[in-house]
Amino acid sequence: MIEMKSNEAITQDHASEHLAKLAFMANQIGDFFKSYPEAEAIASIADHINQFWTKRMREEFRTGFERDASALSPLVRQVRDKVRPAPAA
């Protein structure tokens, strides 16, 4: 028997997958800069995200890992508050 998911469950699955992708990308950036001195690495990761991620991605990164940042490396967790929020419309 095929089990159907509700629209809410599908939306939550999509949101979870999207956050997992953001975490993966942010952690890759963190891996690149992890050999730098910590303060420089944090600034460089934040700068990269601020320059190359869309407003929406930055906002989802800031809010999506507010409660649970366990998917982020310890270095990348320190970057979250340094990522520019999307400007208010």
Task: Summarize the model shown.
By secondary structure, the chain is mostly helical. Helices cover 63% and strands 0% of the residues. It has one domain (25-89).
Mind explaining what this structure looks like?
- Helices cover 63% and strands 0% of the residues.
- The protein is mainly α and 89 residues long.
- The chain has one domain (25-89).
- Helix 1 (7-33) crosses helix 2.
- The longest helix is centred in the N-terminal third of the chain and has 27 residues, at 7-33.
- It is globular.
- It comes from Bosea lupini.
Features:
89 residues; mainly alpha; Formate_DH_dsu
How many structural domains?
A: 1
Number of strands: 0
For the largest beta-sheet, the strand count, sense and barrel status come to:
none
Secondary structure: helix percent: 55-70%
The CA-CA distance between the termini, in Å, is 46 Å
Low-confidence residue ranges: none
Rounded mean pLDDT is 88
Count every helix, treating DSSP H or I runs of 4 or more residues as helices: 4
Shape: globular
Q: Could you give the order of the helices and strands?
A: HHHH
